[in-house]
Amino acid sequence: MRFRNLTRQREIGANSYLLEAGDHRVVLDAGMHPKRVGFDALPDFGPLPHKSANAVIITHAHHDHIGSMPVLQRKQPNTPVLMTEITGELASAMLHNSVNVMTKQREENSITEYPLFTHRELDDIRAQWIYRDIDRSFEIPDTNLEATLFDAGHILGSTGVLVREGSNTLFYTGDVNFEAQTICRAADFPTSGIDVMIAETTRGDYARPEGFSRKGEKERLAGVIRDTHEAGGAVMIPVFALGKTQEVMLMLHELHQEGLIPEMPLYIGGLSTKITVLYDHYASRSRRSYPGFRLLEDMKMLVPRKSKKRQEMISSPRTLYALSSGMMTEHTVSNIFAQKFLDNPRNSLCFVGYTDPESPGYKIRNAAPGTMIKLSKDLPAVALNARVESFDLSAHASREQIAEYIEKVKPKKLLLVHGEEPAQMWFTRRFNETIPGTEIIRPESHQPIDLW
Predict the structure, then answer these.
(1) Cys-Cys with 451: which of 1, 14, 132, 373 at CB 3.0–4.6 Å?
(2) What is the pTM of this model?
(3) 115 prior amide bond cis, ω within 30
(4) CA proximity to 318, closest of 255, 381, 240, 236
């Protein structure tokens, strides 16, 4: 078995990895880089000849793991794509939205190769998608390989992948969370019998403060909401449409039920509503907390807007807004809304996830009060008078949780992926001391690595 990293650099980006066992080839994930455009945003599929892949396995529906899937399927037209049903349905919604975004970018930024795929193409390639249940082994078509999907606790439908060839085993974590969220339960991963592990390292360069707890963060968020409500202001929470929106919605419902926040209307919008419909569809058919609870129907006090008409959202006092995107990227709902929100000192802006250093969200959360913020190149700067707070409610496991899992497994070989250089180095230094018998590898792009 041989491994090749198809990402263009050692980083978080267009995640995609190739396994080669004799004449058999299996691709793990097919993402698109969130900060690059055009063909540069794709993985480099060069080592994968046309029509040569036996299967593609997708761990979850975030863009950096599925964004290039239609391009890959065009090169591998008869190859089955294996994933959970929830991942497939979420992926379809996310990829159709990607077509809309790329079409708009072609018009606004003259990116001539966009869109990289079409709505019709997305409908056609679904014929090759095959859904598999978690915790049930299956044969990878036309190979001597067997695979099993395990719940990764990251977003609904997310999985880690165990691949077995004879007596040898490989486990790919995908994106994982070993800590229960409000909707998703903690990951349920195997802890023995793994020879090789491919592990994400997303949060390797982030140290949680002493005494941190997720419960404490939720209660601190509730405190900000109460203060803002009392001041007659509104609360805006920038969120990603997939995963974070639904997590925040249920968290707010839970806080209200516990009497920690007052009754307030909640607004979401755009793609977030479409994704929430899917979360509700699988409310009773997925491994999650609050089974059967439907966000769009069962939130009695916090009611999302149900109008399908696209209209400008205006901030109202004592109201909650969970708006995408989480990084407040230009021209997204949260970015546009902030233009008339940030200058009000009664309002509060609460960040609950990652913001890239180049994003408007990052600039806001690191700016001093009163700073003039340029949210979009075609709009005037606005004064940052609103209260800004940040909360660690990540859907990724902490570095310590991932390290403890790997130290329990003690694989013979460990490949560190999905992380920037400092993050991977933190894990490397720790494991050199804690599991000295494990060979630690940080794969370069296209570097062939023999696993067994």
Answers:
(1) 1
(2) 0.95
(3) yes
(4) 236
Overall residue count recorded for the chain in this entry: 452
Q: Which two tokens stand for residue 6?
A: 């198809």
Residue 220: what are its φ and ψ, rounded to 5°? -70, -40
**First-residue to last-residue Cα distance in the chain:** 6
DSSP 304-347: -----S-------TT-EEEES-TT--TTSHHHHHHTTTTT-TT-
285-333 pLDDT, tens digit per residue, is 999 999 999 999 999 776 655 555 555 678 999 999 999 999 999 989 9
Q: How far apart are CA 437 and CA 439, in angstroms?
A: 7
Which residues does 116 contact at the CB level (< 8 Å), separation at least 6? 38, 39, 42, 68, 70, 71, 102
Q: Counting beta carbons within 10 angstroms of the beta carbon of residue 1, is it exposed (0 to 12), middle (13 to 18) or buried (19 or more)?
A: buried
- The Cα-based distances of 228 to 50, 237, 327, 349 in angstroms read 57, 13, 22, 10
Q: What tokens were used for 310?
A: 């696209």
Q: Is 290 exposed, middle or buried (0-12, 13-18, 19+ CB in 10 A)?
A: middle
Query: For the chain, give me the number of helices (H) and strands (E)?
Result: 12, 21
Q: Which residue has the tokens 């997310």?
A: 158
pLDDT digits (tens, 9 = 90+) for 320-353: 999 999 999 998 999 999 999 999 999 999 999 9
